[in-house]
Amino acid sequence: MLQRFIDKLRFDKQDQRFELLETESGEPKKWSGWTEKKHAAKSKRSEKRRIKLSKSVDANEKLIKSVFHAEINSDLIVRRFTLKSGMDALIVYMNGMALDSTVSEFIMRPLMNEPEAGVGKKASDMIEIGEVNREPDFDKVKQAVLDGKTALFIDGERAFTVIETRGYEKRSVSTVDNERIVKGPKEGFTENLRTNITLIRRIIRTEDLIVHYAFTGGENNTRLALVYRQNITNERLVKEIKRRLERIRTRMLVSTGIIEQLIEDETFSPIPQTLSTERPDRVASFVMQGAAAIFSDGSPIALVLPSTLASLMSSPEDAYLRRPLGTVMRSVRYAGALISVLLPGGFISLAMYHQGLLSTEVLSTVIKSREMVFEPLPLEMLLLLFVFQLIREAGMRVPGSIGQAIGVIGGLILGQAAVAANLASTVILIIVALAGLGNLCIPDYSMQISASYFRMALVIAGWLGGLLAFGSAALLFAAYLANLKSFGVPFLTPFAPKTYSKRPYVSRGRISMHRRADDYFNTEEERYE
Amino acid sequence: MNERLGRIGAQESTALITTALTVGGAFSKKSADAYSMGNAEYIVMPLSILLSLAVYFILAGAIKRCGAKNFCELVSGIFMPLGCLAAIGVMLLMIYAAFNSLSSFTAALHSLFFEGVGYDRIALFIVPTVFLIAMLGFETMSRTAKLYAIPMVLMLLVSIAGSASEFRVYRLYPLFGGGAGGIIIKAVERIPLFFPAFMSLLIVADGVNGIDHANRTAAISAVLAAGILIIAHLAIGLVYTYKELDRLFMPLFRINYLSKFEAHLMRMDKFAHLIWMNGGMISAALYIYCASRIFIREYALLDIRPAIAVSSLLTLILLLAETGDGTQSAFKICSAFMNKWGFSLYILPPILVSIFALARPKRRKIYGK
To answer: What is the pLDDT of residues B4-40, one digit of tens each?
Structure first.
């Protein structure tokens, strides 16, 4: 942290940012506080510490038991048995992670009944399971066992046979909770990585869809999957994502939300630089365009990279509806976002400093509604915005129907009571409600939260310096957005910079024109055209 | 070296330079001076842009001939050790251009928005914003200009459309102001309003993908800005006579008062001013960035940020000096000199440098070999 701050202040260092667009130059910047040197040294040390396997069952059993703390770890199953041919064998798996029935039916039974097992034929040929690998690296064997696979060792070999036996309890595919649409697919991701990849593969049935699995990051060895299209997704982008994933060093990594924070370009930014979604159709549409997606075992949310403001403001339903309807919906969404961010601050600056700009009717309505309200106007606005956030937060943390009830009680009863108690005026209440509704039009949850922060900042700016401070703050806000990048792609693409796109982002383009990927993905096919 | 330059495309660079030219032509001239010889600004402004563009192309040709990537390299190559002094000169001229972009807006805020509030308090809102935008770098400010350019022009057109009912052709009298000679003199005097924008394009030429792209940007921006300024000044001329304009401060802001359709909910004049002021801030950020860039390139400094801080501070000092008590008379003398003879400082040195560079053997690379 301190080093990053010092790096930012150093005069002799170039501001290094990864750039995806070929017109721009730049090198990947250092992130997560790890320098290349330190990282390389750590890799060398782990290379030296690599454990060598023995040819003897006894030695390997001892090794397994010591590494997994078998005397106190009752989940680990270490079963020693003898093959029909008389050779000693050892089987290791995690109880609950691997299916007991698969282990006994398709691994142990054939090995114990086949006289030639381990002598004339290789043991792996006897096993009646599709995915069987020979693994001489003990670290990988250990990882496989923790992942729910079964490791088999036969006396005299210097390697384990790793067999796919994973079969733990999981939630079945159900409808999405947070990104509901009326017209379109309803199913959402689950916490199971395999299921999620299958959901994607069911939509993208092409041979170029690559799924790269890796155990990355935290000490809890979470399994991640990077999904992209070979020869379509920009190779530099894939390389950069892998580089950033490999450099994650944290104690615990349980969700894509944590990965997002560890791999994005600007860690301290309130604006999300990746698109989080639980919809397979949404991920598939971006991957088809040339984006990459990251899945994490245990998380029903996928991260789509790179993402832009336009992608965060889009909804899958835009494409499923007819063009004019999609355009209207998207325009309403953008208008809602602008109202949400600008209206409260703009109103405060007008009402506090430039009353002359408001027509007499509007001004008299404001004055009349505030007759008995005792706190200053900006405080009233900030208080109500805070109350709105409270209601929203409370509504989200409680079960569905109660949450809705809280929204109604908060919105109607509390609002009415606040007006009756002269705590708030009706005009401000309407403005806050409009801003809140506009905020909810933003499809991305992280963007909704960011918008509410900027809204508060603009209210304070309007309070401090009227339209001058409000305008300056809005300009800085725009400049900040223009400065952001998501994996080398400017955040305001395709507005600024303007890039080639057959689908304009506020009005929806014709579906028949979507033959090429958007320019900002800088796909491989486009590069070699 | 931390220059925060980046690289931008044609649309962003055109938006940035058009914004700077429009702000220069529409908002940064004192009315008393602008309309003293009659109302012919709609001819003077495009002519002045044309003259500035001509000087720009001479300079761009010299840069290309020398094999330099931008104006900074040309200065280093031509002046050798004296380049440091030349860089300070250019830096000061760019800072003056930044001050010019903000001066009218500050005065308008002081007299029309916040009556009785001192310049210092207004400037303390404006200059830090400009400083922060300049700190974010050339790429970012260009993209921000792209976001603001369309609302800025739209607001201008809406303001003009709103006052259309008051257009009277007889107000254009005298049709050619002080005659052809007067128009040419005024056009030359206006060069300091436009040439810094073209000059900044040359200073950051490597950030717009080279001199050829910069030339294209300059030509397109000049045409766009000339078009906008002709419409704006013609509208002003159709609404007010030159005698009225002689006394009127910021006529473009005033014509908003004439629109009828906006009276039901709220007036739009100050909103329009707000958007235009943001354009002024972006232009000022561009000039401050360019002033800092030429300085750090010439003095081989590693980071542009301290130079941006100093340039912003100097701009703030100029803004405060405009109304300060002790410096008022000295500032007025300088200001009058810059208004009358500033063009010579802006165009003569570049023309001399160009002649010197063009006299050298062709394609001889003088810098960065």
So the answer is: 888 888 889 999 999 999 999 988 766 667 777 677 8
DSSP string, A351-379: HHH-GGGB-HHHHHHHHHHTTT--S-HHH
Decide if B57 is inside a domain: yes
Chain B interface mutation, best of A472, A485, A501, highest count of B Cβ atoms under 10 Å: A472
Q: Tell me the nearest-neighbour CA distance from B367 into chain A, angstroms.
A: 21
Strand partners, A187: A175
Contact A329, A340 (CB under 8 A): no
Distance, CA of A507 to CA of A498 (rounded, Å): 15
Strand partners, A485: A490
Radius of gyration of chain A (CA): 29
Give the number of beta-carbon pairs within 8 Å between A and B: 119
Q: Is residue B369 situated within a structural domain?
A: no
For residue A473, the chain B residue with the least C-alpha distance is B129
Does B286 have pLDDT greater than 70?
A: yes
> Please, which residues have CB within 8 angstroms of residue A46's CB and are 6 or more apart in sequence?
none
pLDDT in tens, B212-270: 999 999 999 999 999 999 999 899 889 988 888 877 888 888 887 776 555 555 677 78
B163-183 tens-digit pLDDT: 888 888 888 877 777 788 888
Give the one of A14, A357, A478 whose C-beta lies nearest to B1's C-beta: A14
Q: ipTM score of the complex?
A: 0.92
- A14:B2 CB<8 A: yes
Q: Mutating which of B143, B209, B265, B288 best tests the A interface, going by the most A Cβ atoms within 10 A?
A: B143
Q: How far is CA A448 from the centre of its chain?
A: 16
**Interchain pair B147, A12: CB under 8 A:** no
Which structural domain, as residue segments, surrounds residue B301?
10-354
CB atoms under 10 Å from CB of A113, counted, come to 11
Q: What is the CATH number of the domain that holds B220?
A: 1.20.1740.10
Residue in the structure block whose two tokens are 């914004």: B19
